[in-house]
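Researcher: Predict the fold of HTH-type transcriptional regulator gltC.
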Amino acid sequence: MISKTNKIELRQLRYFRALAEELHYHKAANKLHISQSALSQQIKLLEQQLGVPLFDRLNKKISLSDLGELFYAEAVHILQQVERSMERLDQFHTGSAGTLKIGFVASAMSSFLPEAIKKFHTAYPAIHLRFEEMNNFEQLPALENGDIDIGFMRSNQVRDQMHILRVFEETFTIILPRNHRFGNYHFKDLSILKDEDFILFPNAKSEFYFQQIINLCSDSGFYPRITHQAIHGPTIFSLVGCGMGISIIPTSLAQLHTEDVIAIELKAIPQRTQIFAVWDKSNQNPQIQRFMKSI
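Model: Structure tokens for HTH-type transcriptional regulator gltC follow.
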């Protein structure tokens, strides 16, 4: 019976596999690039540790015993599993294999993110990328739980356990109905909009971005009258197109607007909105840094 205090080494399994396949000490030793005496000592030690003979020895010939046949199958399985694991680890480390899970707000996919994806995929075609559109509120717990490796969000309000890096900055754009009276107006501030109904992203889903819009209006001397809330750009465009109000969105998202609305970029207004890359400091996935270099 094998003793629980004896620890069989992978080296011993490799030696045993070679001898079991060659059934000749000299040939097996040459295959392993060790001396014949070293091989003989390790096989003898292995049999002592297991407490059973692995080989039948008759004159100068050897063959696997019944228990040796059984142990050979197990040893091959173990060594193959270890070799596969080492190969996968090496692929993961070098970037020739692995997975990267990315969460993103919609406007990230309308701005810098597609080009970064193309660049990364060209450099690391074997890396499996998994994307999920998520608002700011959803991304933070997903990062903490490991559901995503990196998030692209419009918020810098994260916990100390997170890395955060600003990766994109842009202007705001006003979305108006096609026939709106301010359709040709050159906005130097927003005070002229103080009596308008606003359609905005919900505060609960994007607190940081929501506050940026409030600050924009506050700097022009008013608090926006919010009559509707929507998360997705197409919904905002539809509501504005129906005459339900106006909206202020990131300029990158405005390029997707429908024909029944007008998009006016606020170039003369100094405030800007940003997108941040966020990832957990404890996440050791090497693909995170590789992807960040693609931005």
